[in-house]
TrEMBL record:
Assigned protein family: Belongs to the aspartate/glutamate racemases family.
EC number(s) from the headed UniProt entry: 5.1.1.13
Species per Swiss-Prot/TrEMBL record: Clostridium vincentii
Official protein name in the record: Aspartate racemase
InterPro entries per record: Asp/Glu/hydantoin_racemase (IPR015942), Asp/Glu_race (IPR001920), Asp/Glu_racemase_AS_1 (IPR018187), Asp/Glu_racemase_AS_2 (IPR033134), Asp_race (IPR004380)
Record flagged with keyword Nucleotide-binding: no
Organism classification: Bacteria, Bacillati, Bacillota, Clostridia, Eubacteriales
GO molecular-function terms, A-Z: aspartate racemase activity
Keywords: Isomerase
């Protein structure tokens, strides 16, 4: 079993889900008392959030590279970043640290391809929805077209992520807002929806909407186990 290095804390609520799913998956695959060989370096999300909203991505890259170096030095064989937005610097981590980063958009794209879908909606932070780093991976690696909510809807999604979900607040009114936005994406031609923020699956489940949901947290965590166990 390869040792999984997790960069967590963005937020710790979703990192907790990663740890749970990874260990449950190892037990399911290997049985007995097996659990995952893993290391987690957890950052202070307050600092990350401030730098994100100040668009200080170079400073954020330095933080992420430092975290990856610590994990590599600790014995990690590969890295997973326990958040969608910070995959913006996934290639920087690989190039500067010399360690594989299992990219969340790539493994999610593989699941979309398995469903034979060509167009999906994307929910996430404004950074993930509006910048190209995530959509480009889905398009170039998997030939998947991505549509995003309108500007007002993007603002709603973003605010709920940072002001509620990252603080562990689950609000039924916010859930209804997300459902309406997903339904609007379906009307625009989305065959499925990518929950492109690791906190969103805390709020939205498959049974809440009529189109297929791609829970990036679960997909990424299970893919990490499969990669760790692959000989």
């Amino acid at each position: 079993m390869k040792t999984i290095g997790l960069i967590g804390g963005m937020s710790w609520e979703s990192s907790l889900e990663y740890y749970r799913v990874i260990n449950e998956t190892v037990k399911l695959k290997l049985g007995g008392l097996h659990s995952a060989q893993c290391l987690m370096y957890s950052v202070d999300f307050e600092q990350i959030e401030v730098l994100q909203h100040e668009n200080k991505w170079d400073e954020l890259t330095n933080i992420m590279v430092n975290a990856a170096e610590r994990l590599k030095n600790g014995g990690a064989d590969f890295i997973i970043i326990c958040t969608n937005t910070m995959h913006k610097m996934a290639s920087d981590i690989e190039n500067k640290v010399g360690i594989k980063v299992l990219h969340i958009a790539e493994v999610t794209g593989e699941k979309i391809v398995e469903k034979r879908m060509k167009k999906v909606g994307l929910l996430g932070t404004k950074f993930t929805m509006e910048q190209d780093f995530y959509k480009q991976v889905l398009k170039e690696k998997c030939n998947i077209d991505v549509i995003i909510p309108d500007e007002n809807e993007r603002e709603i999604i973003h605010e709920i992520i940072y002001n509620e979900l990252c603080e562990g607040i689950i609000n039924e009114v916010s859930k209804e807002k997300y459902i309406r936005i997903i339904n609007n994406l379906a009307l625009k031609g989305a065959e499925g929806v990518v929950l492109g923020c690791t906190e969103i699956p805390l709020l939205i489940k498959q049974e809440d909407v009529s189109i297929p949901v791609f829970d990036t947290t679960t997909i990424h965590a299970i893919s990490a186990v499969e990669f760790a166990l692959d000989k």
